[in-house]
Here is the input.
Amino acid sequence: MIMREWRRKDKEFNKSTIEVNLLLKDHHEMEPETDHQENIQRVLKFHARFSSIFESLSGFSKASVNMYSDLIAYINNASATKEEISGNPFA
Here is the structure.
């Protein structure tokens, strides 16, 4: 009687072990595809963020060029005004 009970439990255990192994195998076979999709999404997000950095740098560069041009124009206007006031071009 004890032997029968033990064999029955052993069969149940083996059956559940096989089922778990099959589930794990199915999950493992599906996992690389989902990992691949997740990696693609990560790369796309990184690409978008990285390109936004270059867009920001481009905007900063344009603003710097405009500011530098305005500064040069201001200096030229200031020196022209100074020449007109003093009459000396080297003042």
